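hiii so um. not sure if this is the right channel but i have a protein structure encoded as tokens and i wanna go backwards to a sequence. like what aa goes where. can anyone help
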């Protein structure tokens, strides 16, 4: 069976095209992403609140986000919302999928591309359904949730962002770092729900911590709460063979 190939393919490798959006607060995080995985995306943009791009990032791949109502350094949702709206207006038709991460993430782009090329996802994408993916996105006010700093949106959802994000149900001035949680709640107000992050064997492909922490279940605070809520497996059983994201990666 011949696999469908996106007409938007940029690099000629077939399958879906992926635009990566990476937020940084400075330091060498952006450079480390570029040195390891960022160039595997079909194109990318590094975003920050500073006027000049971080070391190793040219101005063509940098966007300075301005949020007048943002008053705290960790207020991520207004920045994410503004950046997504900018991309929705300028690039929504140029790529199949848009990936949002922070600079302490590591993405295995080849595995992500394979997951998005899967017929169960690909068929929905080609039918024009708005799609997104994130880690255990909240499905109700009382549902347990863990913020993960990675979300994936398809082009149809990006086009909807043009009207969704300015809507009063989404345009908030949330002060905090759980930008993925608030965006997920925004989307669910419009009856748009996330795709599963599990593979065909029920193993997760998008991880809330680095490899060692996920494997041994270490860490306290919110990660201990996460284990109590979800009781995830440990060791090799914690990982899918096609895992595509790790968070709080100390080094590459």
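sure thing!! here u go:
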């Amino acid at each position: 069976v011949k696999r469908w190939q996106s007409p938007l393919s940029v690099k000629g490798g077939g399958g879906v095209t992926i635009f990566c959006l990476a937020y940084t607060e400075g330091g060498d995080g952006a450079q480390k992403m570029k040195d390891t995985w960022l160039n595997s995306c079909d194109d990318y943009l590094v975003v920050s609140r500073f006027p000049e791009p971080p070391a190793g990032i040219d101005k063509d791949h940098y966007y300075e986000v301005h949020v007048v109502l943002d008053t705290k350094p960790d207020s991520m949702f207004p920045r994410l919302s503004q950046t997504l709206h900018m991309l929705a207006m300028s690039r929504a038709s140029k790529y199949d999928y848009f990936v949002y991460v922070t600079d302490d993430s590591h993405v295995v782009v080849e595995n992500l591309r394979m997951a998005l090329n899967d017929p169960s996802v690909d068929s929905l994408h080609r039918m024009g359904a708005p799609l997104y993916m994130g880690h255990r996105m909240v499905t109700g006010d009382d549902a347990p949730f863990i913020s993960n700093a990675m979300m994936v949106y398809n082009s149809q959802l990006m086009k909807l962002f043009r009207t969704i994000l300015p809507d009063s149900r989404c345009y908030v001035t949330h002060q905090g770092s759980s930008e993925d949680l608030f965006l997920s709640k925004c989307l669910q107000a419009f009856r748009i729900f996330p795709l599963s992050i599990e593979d065909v064997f029920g193993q997760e492909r998008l991880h809330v911590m680095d490899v060692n922490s996920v494997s041994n279940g270490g860490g306290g605070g919110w990660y201990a709460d996460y284990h109590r809520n979800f009781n995830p497996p440990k060791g090799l059983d914690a990982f899918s063979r096609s895992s595509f994201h790790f968070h709080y990666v100390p080094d590459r």
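oh and The beta strands are 18-23, 43-48, 62-64, 97-102, 106-107, 132-134, 150-154, 245-246.
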